[in-house]
Amino acid sequence: MQLKKRTVIIERAEAIAYVFNWLAQRPSTESWVVLIAGKGHERYIDRNGHKTPV
């Protein structure tokens, strides 16, 4: 099994721009779906039942 290259981008706007630039370079015969998900409206992060303010 061959491993594929991964790119990690922390900044949301930079990551979104990167993925759409990458998709623009793909052949039109390839079908892709991009899911842009976020934390949501909560003002805390819930980890293992412990709520930490952000």
Would you give an account of this structure?
With 54 residues, this protein is an alpha+beta fold. 24% of the residues lie in helices and 15% in strands. It is built from one helix and two strands. It has one helix at residues 12-24; strands at residues 44-47, 50-53. A two-stranded antiparallel ribbon has the order 1-2. Strand 1 and strand 2 (50-53) form a beta hairpin. The mean pLDDT is 87.
Question: What is this structure, in a nutshell?
Answer:
With 54 residues, the protein is an alpha+beta fold. The chain is 24% helix and 15% strand.
Q: Which key terms come to mind for this protein?
A:
alpha+beta, two-stranded antiparallel ribbon, 54 residues
Strand content: 5-15%
What kind of sheet is the major sheet?
A: 2 strands, antiparallel
Continuous helix count: 1
Mean pLDDT, nearest integer? Answer: 87
* Topology as a string of helices (H) and strands (E): HEE
Structural class: alpha+beta
Helix content: 10-25%
State the end-to-end distance. Answer: 40 Å
What overall form do the CA principal axes indicate? elongated
